[in-house]
Amino acid sequence: MFATSESIIILARSGLSAGSGAYSDFPWGRRILAKDAMSLATPEALENNWSRVWQFHHDCCVKALGAMPNAAHRTPAALTHPNVIARIAFSLPPFITQNVDGLPIRALKSSTPDIKAAGEKNPLQMHGSNFAPAAPPVGTNGSLPPHTSWP
pLDDT tens per residue, the chain (151 residues)? Predict the structure, then answer.
């Protein structure tokens, strides 16, 4: 299948980290966590209760730091290995992840040196990272300009 493909993209869906236990012991559970995340991922939520938004993301970071990448994180990382990719494609395909917890990046960094080197430009974090939040400039009131989308 790969050998006849003109273009390959490695896409890691969100939810890969559930197997690592990153969110399993939140007091409110995964279903509520997902609902809570969606309600907090708006400019209005940040404007109305910025402390709650930052606390939520801080809690997610703490849980992610306590988790280890699992096989679902390591498999896409392995596909970036030069010896593997040379058998299935002409060049390194883009590695795009929906995960914001940093586990796919940790999977790349914990790999062999050649995987680390190949993955330096990868993955593209589609939804950003909880470890690199966008913060309002110092001295502003923290509100976002009209028509600004929150990452």
Answer: 666 777 778 888 777 887 787 665 454 444 445 566 677 777 788 788 878 888 887 888 888 888 888 888 888 877 777 777 777 777 777 778 888 788 888 888 777 666 666 555 667 788 778 777 665 555 555 554 444 444 4
For helices 50-65 and 29-40, angle between their N-to-C axes, nearest 10 degrees: 130
- Asked if the structure places residue 92 within a domain, the reply is yes
User: Into how many domains does the chain fold?
Assistant: 1
Locate 94 and state its tokens.
Answer: 């883009």
Of the candidates 35, 10, 37, 14, the one whose C-alpha atom is nearest the C-alpha of residue 103 is 14
According to DSSP, the β-strands at 10-12 and 95-97 are parallel
pTM equals 0.65
In a domain, 111, yes or no: yes
Contacts of 71 (CB under 8 A, 6+ apart): 19
